Amino acid sequence: MDATVYMPQDVSSDVADVQITDGAPEDWTEIGSISDVFVDQSGQVSTVVLSPNDSAGTDANALGLMMDSVTVKTSENGDQIFVVYTGDKVSLEQGEEFDQAQAEEDGMMSANDRQDGQMAASESGTMQNDANADSSQMADAQNAEMESNGLTIRAAELNGYPVYVPGEGSTGDEIPMEVTGVDDAWERVGEIGSVVLSRDGEIKSVTLDAGGFLGMGEKEVETTMEELRFVRDSDDDGEYFIVFTGDRSALEEREEYDEATSREQGEQRLTNEDIARSTRANAQETGETVASGSDSGGEAETEILAAEELDGAPVYDSTGEEIGNISELVVNDSGEISEVVIDVGGFLGLGEKPVAISYTDLMIDKSVDTAFGDVRVSVNHSRDELESMERWTQ
After folding, report:
1. Are the C-beta atoms of residues 208 and 152 closer than 8 Å to each other?
2. How large is the greatest C-alpha to C-alpha distance in the chain, in angstroms?
3. Any idea which of 140-144, 336-340, 379-383 has the lowest mean pLDDT?
4. How many C-beta atoms surround the C-beta of residue 2 within 10 A?
5. Alpha helix positions (H), the chain
6. For residues 50 and 31, is the Cβ–Cβ distance under 8 A?
7. Is the pLDDT of residue 330 over 50?
């Protein structure tokens, strides 16, 4: 949060037409900062909570701004995000104090509280899984696989895989069977968070985060394997891209995944945490050592680690603060990974800036269990240092 909110001198002007090259326009006034975002029961942002400054002309400590009075602008080079109030100035000055209790009574929830609740539920679910997990059953679950488009799709390899949508109004018919890379028309909507297996041990569906506004208020939804197209990567034998055959709205309007009902139906959910625990348990049984990021396991092991575990992984600075996510792996002419691209900056997930750093600059620890899996990626760079780097382009 804490993003600065601006108000144009002429609130009737069309902010969408404003071109921003270097900082906020001179006729925009800072009126405060965002302290919270409230989402409705469908997960959509309904209200932005403004902590006004003296320029806002109000005595209120907090004002609730409706989303139709707020616009988010990105600078031309994509490096800066600006939140702009485009509503009536009188309404701003005479606005009543934001009533959080009333908002919650009306069914809204603070995005901060929602995120904390989801994290608590996830931790609680992990503890329950720890108590009840059967290592033999989990090993069988990891080995579950299916065939699609001549490809072997393995359950243990799906978690964390990026998912794309082909575009608004798509029926899926135009999605090709094979490509050389991500199609320019595709839009990345998230990553697979877990794989759901049927009572018979078959791969039934996957879950991923979808919906929300500017990355906030996301919900976990389930999509069947029939709704996904596994598009072969012609440049890498056996590899593929995953494309949802509908459009983004089909995911955003879907009911949230009900894990309790899924369990009642005898289904099993396979998460990154499950795979990490099972791998460690098997290693302990056989007396093998689970490799850590500091181990020199050879070039082949390094490439496998990068391809299967780093894509989409969160990146932390030396203080433990999450400062971005790995979005691309750059391969040189010799077929070796030379750089990784990290998405940093932005506001509520919008306007992130991709920057490239040397692959050797990564510090990879595989001895920890994180929400992403048993890998933690750190760099000796601060968020500010990364954001000041030149924007990476292909």
Report:
1. no
2. 71
3. 140-144
4. 8
5. 89-93, 100-105, 111-132, 135-142, 155-158, 248-252, 259-264, 272-286, 299-305, 383-387
6. yes
7. yes
pLDDT at 159 over 70: yes
Tell me if 270 sits within 8 A of 156, measured CB to CB: yes
Greater pLDDT, 19 or 131: 19
Closest CA to 262 of 218, 226, 208, 222: 222
The CA distance from 39 to 306, in Å, is: 36
pLDDT at 160: 76
Q: Hunting for tokens 């900062």 — which residue is that? A: 33
Pairing of strands 28-39, 109-110: antiparallel
Confidence band for 294, pLDDT divided at 50, 70 and 90: very low
> Is the per-residue pLDDT at 319 higher than 50?
yes
Taking residues 20-48, what's their average pLDDT? 81
Measured at the CA of 141, the angle between CA 136 and CA 147, to 5 degrees, comes to 145
- Interatomic CA distance for residues 310 and 307, integer angstroms: 6
Is residue 74 within 8 Å of 349, Cβ to Cβ? no
Instruction: State the virtual CA torsion across 111, 116, 122, 127 in degrees, nearest 10.
Output: -170
Tokens in use for 252? Answer: 């955003």
Q: Is the pLDDT at 116 greater than 80, yes or no? A: no
The length of the chain, given as a count of residues: 394
Find tokens 């030149």 and name the residue. 390
User: 316 vs 173, 267, 386, 390, CA distance in Å?
Assistant: 40, 34, 12, 20
Cα–Cα separations (whole angstroms), residue 267 to 25, 270, 274: 55, 10, 15
H, E, C per residue of 165-211: ECCCCCCCCCCCCEECCCCCCCEEEEEEEEEEECCCCCEEEEEEEEC
Cα 352 to Cα 354: distance, rounded to the nearest angstrom: 7
Residue with structure tokens 């760099």?
A: 379
Q: Name every residue whose Cβ is closer than 8 Å to that of residue 186 and which is 6 or more positions away in sequence.
A: 164, 165, 166, 167, 241, 243
What are the backbone angles phi and psi of residue 129, rounded to the nearest 5°?
Answer: -65, -40
